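Lab meeting, item 3. Inverse folding demo.
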């Protein structure tokens, strides 16, 4: 025999009938004819609560009379068990099915708030990705604390159904959620009649709110007192630690002998192991990093020695690496013996490949205990041990030979040309009488005059020559001269290209590859393009085309007279393998060195560009 169980769903105001097996068709027909519906999700028959529904459900249970009495009493109890306003706005986390559609969510939310706040009228509608939640009317004033409390509860209820589907704090639109929506007061909100029951409820709310606020103030005050007590204890502990550290520092100063080394006394520690994680507070933290393989090998030129005569003092110092000590002040730093670099300006004007060929060494302080090297310190000009190098596997050498890129003969020749360049600059400044303004107001006049003198002396200005200049302002200006080009509008104007003349353009496309564009020139117009103030509109006929086209140019561009083709070997490696021709690019996308190869290729043929916004040529 099929057994039936009736349950009251208080939250949804429903009646649910569960069977332990499929009932007879007659029972199913009775349920359907009396408004019951089948829930495939909960595996039960359900309908809204009513006396008739209770009678039908009871008729299917074992003890009809008892079940009916309990069910009716339960309904009466539910209806009479109204929460006060204060109790109604008390939020407790509830379990929700976040996978429901917005329509189903809106339905559940609507049922919940209408039952919890029967004195209020709500408008809760939805579409495929949003829920619109309005408080339409109530016995409370629109700006009252009662409405604010109800709105806060409703907001928490709405949020209980919401979850993040795609967390992206850096996106233009932030993270994505399963739906959008918020709780608002309706723009046509109306206040309904206030009954005596409502007034009593509001008085109880005010009293409960005052008690809550008073308790909250007491809690905050207690938390503040506890925080103050904790801060006092921390201050006492800090002062105690400071006093202890001060005693340790005094002990360290009384236990060290500091020796500054002159040039011929200095030496090198090769292969010092510097932990990648800098600013370690203790030597043991450095050792842990090194043991994990997180370190780099550096060569250190020792300019100062610190000798400890007490192991205890060394231990104190090893645990206070981030504390200031006078004997570390002004020590450390990086240097190179590379003869291409006479100032950091030279290094900053190298390209990435050149920078990789520069070998940097460190200045440092050697720490000894009983004449045995313990570790080295690169303070980088500070007065604390910013970087510490372990020396267990290091070696000590008196001298160090730097492998130079340029030999002595090259350097001698470059220095002679650098001296000649200084003379040219001096004479230009003198002839133009621009001693005070040659770097700024008179820069264009100075630049053109220097270019003209270089042509007269048949001298090609290169980065290698500029590197050997000793006068820093002149060095900066010559690097500027090497890199600064005239604007694209000025260069097209000076090029004086005639209509119908054939030209070839080279430029990097938006995809990063080099484009060769052969065309027949028609006209060029100075203009602006997007954020670029210096741009041109070029009108032309592409090769094998009869119609005029136009394009805007505003960045790096090479233009040659005549139609030219670029051999594959200029920008690519070309190999024959197993009967196949394999072509691979020499450069990555958008690499400006492609322009260098093109300039070099045509320069070997005696062909110069008429427009070159990449870099000046001398």
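The presenter then showed the designed sequence:
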């Amino acid at each position: 025999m099929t057994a039936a169980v009736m349950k009251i769903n208080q939250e949804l105001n429903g009646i649910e009938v569960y069977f332990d097996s499929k009932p007879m068709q007659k029972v199913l027909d009775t349920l359907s004819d009396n408004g019951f519906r089948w829930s495939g999700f909960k595996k039960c028959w359900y309908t809204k609560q009513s006396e008739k529904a209770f009678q039908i459900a009871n008729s299917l249970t074992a003890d009809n009379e008892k079940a009916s009495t309990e069910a009716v009493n339960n309904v009466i109890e539910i209806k009479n068990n109204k929460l006060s306003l204060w109790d109604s706005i008390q939020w407790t986390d509830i379990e929700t099915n976040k996978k429901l559609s917005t329509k189903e969510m809106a339905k559940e939310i609507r049922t919940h708030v209408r039952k919890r706040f029967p004195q209020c009228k709500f408008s809760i509608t939805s579409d495929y990705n949003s829920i619109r939640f309005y408080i339409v009317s109530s016995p409370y004033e629109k700006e009252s604390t009662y409405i604010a409390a109800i709105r806060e509860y409703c907001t928490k209820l709405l949020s209980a159904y919401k979850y993040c589907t795609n967390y992206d704090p850096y996106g233009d639109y932030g993270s994505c959620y399963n739906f959008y929506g918020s709780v608002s007061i309706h723009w046509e909100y109306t206040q309904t009649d206030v009954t005596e029951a409502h007034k009593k409820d509001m008085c109880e709310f005010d009293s409960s709110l005052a008690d809550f606020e008073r308790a909250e103030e007491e809690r905050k005050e207690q938390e503040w007192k506890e925080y103050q007590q904790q801060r006092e204890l921390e201050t006492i502990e800090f002062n105690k630690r400071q006093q202890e550290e001060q005693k340790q520092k005094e002990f360290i100063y009384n236990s060290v002998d500091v020796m500054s080394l002159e040039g011929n006394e200095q030496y090198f520690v090769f292969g010092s192991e510097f932990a990648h994680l800098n600013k370690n507070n203790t030597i043991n933290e450095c050792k842990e990093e090194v043991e994990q393989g997180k370190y780099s090998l550096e060569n250190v030129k020792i300019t100062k020695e610190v000798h400890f005569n007490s192991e205890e003092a060394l231990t104190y110092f090893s645990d206070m690496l981030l504390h200031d000590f006078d004997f570390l002040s002004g020590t450390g730093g990086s240097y190179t013996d590379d003869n291409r670099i006479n100032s950091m300006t030279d290094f900053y004007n190298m390209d990435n490949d050149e920078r990789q060929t520069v070998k940097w060494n460190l200045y440092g302080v050697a720490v000894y205990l009983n004449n045995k090297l313990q570790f080295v310190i690169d303070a980088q000009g500070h007065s604390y041990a910013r970087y510490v190098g372990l020396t267990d596997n290091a070696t000590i050498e008196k001298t160090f030979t730097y492998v130079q890129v340029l030999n002595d003969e090259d350097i001698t020749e470059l220095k002679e040309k650098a001296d000649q360049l200084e003379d040219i600059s001096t004479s230009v400044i003198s002839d133009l009488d621009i001693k005070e303004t040659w770097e700024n107001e008179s820069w264009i006049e100075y630049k053109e005059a220097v270019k003209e003198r270089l042509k007269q002396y048949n001298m090609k200005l290169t980065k290698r020559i500029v590197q050997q200049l000793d006068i820093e302002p002149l060095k900066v200006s010559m690097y500027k001269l090497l890199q600064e080009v005239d604007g694209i509008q000025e260069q097209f104007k000076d090029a004086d290209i005639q209509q119908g003349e054939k030209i070839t353009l080279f430029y990097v496309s938006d995809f990063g590859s080099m484009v060769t564009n052969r065309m027949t020139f028609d006209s060029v117009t100075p203009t602006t393009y997007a954020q670029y103030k210096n741009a041109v509109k070029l009108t032309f006929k592409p090769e094998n085309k009869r119609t005029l086209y136009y394009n805007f140019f505003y960045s790096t561009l090479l233009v040659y007279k005549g139609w030219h083709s670029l051999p594959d070997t200029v920008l690519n490696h070309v190999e024959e393998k197993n009967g196949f021709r394999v072509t691979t690019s020499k450069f990555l996308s958008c690499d400006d060195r492609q322009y260098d190869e093109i300039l070099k290729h045509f320069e070997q043929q005696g062909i110069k560009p008429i427009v070159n916004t990449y870099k000046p040529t001398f």
